[in-house]
Amino acid sequence: MNSPEFDKNVDVRTVFFVSDGTGLTAESYGKSLLAQFPELEFITVTLAFVDTPEKAGLAGDQINAARLRSGFQPVVFSTLVDEAEQEIIESCNACVINLFDAFLGPLENCFGMESAHTQGMSRTIYGDKSYLVRLDAIDYSLAHDDGVRPDQYDEAEAILVGVSRCGKTPTSLFLAMNFSLKTSNYPLTAEDLANDRLPDSLLKHKHKLVGLTIKPVPLSRIRRKRRPGSDYASLGVCQREIAVAGAMFEHADIPVFDTTETSIEEIAGNVVRVLGISRERSGYV
């Protein structure tokens, strides 16, 4: 999810990921859920290592301030396990989703026993090799978002290409966070779309390329949220860009997936499958 500058013309929702650890779990689950609302814009804020009531209070102050600033109720995804700290967060003027309660309760009932529910259990993985690989993948994907440094695509394990606002960034981050894949994404520019083939900088990595597409009407709606009244958001421009991009994908003979009504989890799974990457290798089993 991109973090746009606050714009009074756009219904921007502030989303907080609150954790007593790194926040990766809250971010992963939260962003997967937010991806089901592609027409909304989000400012995302991660509040990590909230492991005392004092820190929870400071986090609550930020959450309430966001409510006053934007006029919209913030959304909070929390993985806090300390009840006192969680109560402080739940007292905020926000939609608070306790991810641990949502899953641990049913599992405790299923297993007939209480969970360890121990604060900071996830911190034991800091030195784990798979954890470090995941962090490296996330760093790479963030540094190569939106067409940045195509000269470094040799290191990429997957490269997503498509028109602007078709879902490349959230899918890239999901692949990095959940499959530990170094993923680049490249938005087709007006100059690119004036040609009948993908840029050579991409074609040299054809075996890593996956095209993403989207239907014109939803794309126009998404773009209008970002740039109301612009040619960029007009239905005609969206139709033309999608058609040209589709022809380029077909000419390059690369796999293509439609993001219009498909969850990020499914898109990411399709990318992993079509590129022949095993779930075991990625650490996502």
Question: How would you describe this structure to a colleague?
Answer:
This protein is of the alpha/beta class and 285 residues long. The protein folds into two domains: 12-124, Rossmann fold (3-Layer(aba) Sandwich), CATH 3.40.50; 129-282, Rossmann fold (3-Layer(aba) Sandwich). The protein has helices at 24-34, 53-70, 83-90, 99-111, 129-143, 168-179, 190-193, 200-203, 216-226, 235-252, 264-274, 279-282, and strands at 12-18, 41-47, 75-78, 95-98, 158-162, 183-187, 209-213, 256-258. It is globular and about 60 Å long. Mean pLDDT is 86; it is low at 1-10, 122-126 and 280-285.
Q: What would you report as the Rg, rounded to the nearest angstrom? A: 20 Å
- Principal-axes geometry comes out as globular
How many β strands by DSSP? 8
SSE pattern, N- to C-terminal: EHEHEHEHHEHEHHEHHEHH
Class of secondary structure makeup: alpha/beta
Number of separate helices: 12
Number of domains: 2
What is the level-2 CATH architecture name of the largest domain?
A: 3-Layer(aba) Sandwich
What's the layout of helices and strands?
Layout: E1 12-18, H1 24-34, E2 41-47, H2 53-70, E3 75-78, H3 83-90, E4 95-98, H4 99-111, H5 129-143, E5 158-162, H6 168-179, E6 183-187, H7 190-193, H8 200-203, E7 209-213, H9 216-226, H10 235-252, E8 256-258, H11 264-274, H12 279-282
